[in-house]
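User: Please fill in residues for this 733-position structure.
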């Protein structure tokens, strides 16, 4: 594989002629470059008017390589041919170099150029490009490549220092000005001119490598098949080294080269708008400056941005009022490093309510708008603080985090959002401060962390309880005067407090689909109709005992009874209920019955948990740890209103309730999943420990005989531990 290098434009704030006087002092040897042992002049030509000076040298280098490798190669020194072509008329110096030693095994080419700054004729620009192609080297190709790249990059770093060293030397000698070349008073005769041309042609033919034969005029030197020449273009097309340091930070020579080469490729292939240099650099950092990988991911991201019009999201998309009221996050000043600070009160946010009211697409768009705003704030802070700021800090307060945040569809929506952000906004998170992490946090972390890049995970700092107030805590990263008030600080934070999203704002999958919004729950939630005498049932086959069946369902209409049964033998294949009066095939959902009417409870199947009565409007989440392999049946059954004990006549409330359920029809939306015991072990440990250790959950543990009549109540039924959390103490919505 050919390794390539392209430098940024390095600017010397000195005239071209003074730089040339300093450059010539590097020969025949330079004490500042230990590997540069000596050089001999092979050919030299100077035009009669003095404008053109071409000199070819054979340079002797002592490469810092293992003695064994030198012994195998049979050499102590490596020789390079360097050809310098100075055009004083155009004020340019082109330098061509290639290796003479092992030229059949290793091909090294370099091209450098000194020229006048296009906007200031008293400044000098320098550009450099090189290529390395190791064809074969006694089986040590990889070792030679590493040695060559190491030696080359170390010399690149010294290049500017060496010129500045000789500039100071000239100044000490009283030389601060070198006059420009001026043409002689009398023009040379035609015979002299012809003689000069013949001598120049003879010199070109004397050069052993045909790639180095070129004219001696003012045109840039050609190098077919060799190192890429510095790209010709306007100053805006090129990156200045001072600009890189000021706006992008300190980069190694190879990192600078990767940035410039990827940027040039984007300019050539993407005729439209290309990302800003800061964003290109983020993709390179995310892929450890592997250009091919960074190019691939960046092209995918550019296509994605164009497809979804992400560049215009801040100007064209207004977040729904629900997000503005209940999304507990917002920007809040900056940290001690000047990074924009984003505060997220995740423990106070109703993730399920937001997903049910808006759908995953709206949440994703909102997160994208936050990231776009973060990029804009980074640019502003770079200008304000006078140093590169390319990422932001996120402060996440987990006070209030409990089991309702582990709603699996919500977690899956979060994972997809993380996936999109990781793919399209790499290296934008500078630091993540997680405060007041409760005991339930390891469960969420176990679910989310595998989807977060390793580089990103290293930026996480997690504090439990009030640890953030001690040494190494929040004050190490954020100034005291801007610590939010809800963290015992003095600064009023305008981030919304979140809270429960009213169920009146919930929308069904059909409603969201009509608005052309892709709801994440469309793929994992199913709708079912439940009728009097026709329950809805689903079959789950368990192979390994101690597996965990999890569920989440909403009672959209009517009251139902939820049951779980176990059978050693499989029911007959599911058959749709054929009662025409039920309108089973309507878009509102389906109805499947599995338990055969001839089956007897206790003989053919058994009840593994007590029935749970669920009222209209309730949301129920729970899990069951299986004890035996076999077939488990989850059943939603129509709940009949009980008659008054003193009379056979129904109560008034029962009559009014029955009128609301037309044709004795109920409707549920449900989601189920089976988790292997090995995957659920950590979660079960956290759930069990939360009964006594996590105050909010332990306080919510009550007798199953307690009940609440409000339809807004949401309950979590943990059948595996025989515990029910009442909705007013553990709100789920």
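Assistant: Residues filled in for all 733 positions:
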């Amino acid at each position: 594989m050919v390794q390539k290098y392209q430098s940024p434009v390095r600017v010397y704030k000195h005239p071209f002629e003074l730089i040339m006087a300093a450059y010539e002092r590097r020969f025949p040897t330079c004490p500042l470059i230990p590997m540069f042992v000596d050089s001999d002049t092979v050919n030299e030509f100077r035009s009669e008017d003095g404008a053109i000076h071409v000199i070819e040298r054979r340079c002797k280098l002592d490469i810092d390589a293992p003695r064994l490798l030198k012994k195998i190669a049979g050499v102590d020194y490596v020789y390079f041919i360097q050809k310098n072509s100075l055009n004083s008329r155009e004020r340019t110096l082109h330098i061509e170099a290639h290796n003479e030693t092992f030229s059949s095994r290793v091909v090294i080419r370099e091209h450098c150029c000194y020229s006048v700054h296009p906007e200031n004729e008293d400044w000098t620009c320098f550009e450099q490009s090189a290529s390395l192609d190791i064809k074969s080297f006694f089986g040590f190709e990889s070792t030679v490549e590493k040695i060559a790249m190491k030696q080359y990059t170390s010399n690149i770093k010294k290049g500017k220092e060496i010129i500045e060293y000789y500039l100071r030397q000239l100044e000490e000698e009283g030389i601060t000005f070198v006059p420009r070349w001026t043409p002689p008073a009398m023009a040379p005769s035609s015979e002299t001119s012809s003689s000069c041309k013949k001598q120049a042609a003879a010199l070109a033919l004397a050069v052993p490598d045909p790639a180095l034969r070129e004219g001696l005029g003012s045109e840039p030197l050609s190098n077919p098949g060799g190192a890429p020449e510095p790209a010709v273009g306007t100053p805006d097309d090129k990156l200045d080294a001072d600009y890189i340091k000021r706006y992008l930070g300190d980069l190694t020579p190879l990192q600078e080269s990767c940035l410039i080469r990827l940027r040039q490729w984007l300019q050539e292939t993407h005729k439209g708008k290309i990302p800003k240099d800061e964003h290109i650099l983020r993709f390179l950092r995310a892929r450890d400056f592997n250009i091919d990988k960074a190019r691939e991911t960046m092209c995918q991201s550019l296509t994605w941005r164009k497809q979804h019009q992400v560049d215009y999201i801040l100007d064209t998309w207004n977040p729904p009022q629900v997000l503005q009221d209940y999304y507990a996050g917002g920007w809040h000043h900056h940290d001690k490093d000047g990074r924009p600070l984003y505060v997220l009160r995740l423990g106070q946010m109703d993730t399920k309510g937001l997903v049910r009211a808006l759908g995953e697409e709206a949440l994703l768009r909102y997160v994208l708008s936050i990231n776009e705003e973060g990029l804009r704030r980074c640019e502003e802070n770079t200008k304000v603080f006078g140093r590169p700021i390319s990422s932001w800090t996120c402060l996440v307060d987990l006070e209030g985090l409990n089991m309702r945040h582990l709603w699996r569809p919500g977690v899956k929506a979060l994972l997809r959002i993380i996936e999109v952000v990781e793919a399209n906004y790499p290296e934008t998170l500078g630091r993540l401060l997680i405060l007041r992490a409760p005991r339930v946090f390891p469960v969420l972390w176990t679910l989310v962390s595998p989807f977060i890049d390793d580089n990103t995970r290293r930026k996480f700092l997690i504090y439990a309880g009030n640890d953030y107030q001690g040494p190494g805590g929040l004050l190490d990263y954020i100034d005291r005067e801007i610590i939010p008030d809800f963290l015992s600080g003095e600064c009023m934070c305008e981030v919304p407090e979140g809270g429960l999203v009213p169920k009146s704002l919930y929308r069904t999958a059909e409603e969201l689909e009509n608005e052309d919004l892709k709801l994440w729950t469309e793929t994992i939630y199913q709708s079912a109709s439940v009728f009097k005498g026709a329950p809805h049932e689903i079959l789950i086959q368990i192979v390994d005992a101690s597996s965990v069946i999890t569920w989440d369902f909403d009672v959209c209409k009517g009251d139902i009874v939820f049951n779980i049964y176990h059978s050693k033998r499989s029911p007959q294949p599911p058959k749709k209920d054929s009662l025409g009066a039920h309108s089973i095939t309507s878009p509102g959902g389906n109805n499947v019955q599995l338990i055969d009417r001839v089956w007897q409870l206790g003989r053919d199947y058994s009840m593994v948990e007590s029935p749970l009565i669920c009222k209209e409007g309730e949301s129920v989440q729970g899990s069951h740890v299986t004890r035996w392999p076999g077939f488990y049946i989850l059943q939603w059954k129509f709940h009949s209103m009980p008659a008054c004990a003193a009379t056979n006549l129904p109560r008034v409330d029962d009559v009014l309730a029955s009128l609301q359920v037309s044709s004795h029809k109920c409707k549920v939306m449900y989601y189920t999943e089976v988790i292997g015991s090995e995957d659920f072990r950590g979660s079960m440990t956290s759930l069990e420990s939360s009964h006594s250790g996590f105050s909010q959950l332990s306080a919510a543990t009550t007798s199953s005989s307690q009940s609440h009549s409000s339809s807004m109540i949401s309950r979590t039924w943990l059948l595996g531990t025989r515990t029910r959390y009442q909705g007013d103490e553990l709100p789920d919505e």
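For context: The chain has a mean pLDDT of 77.
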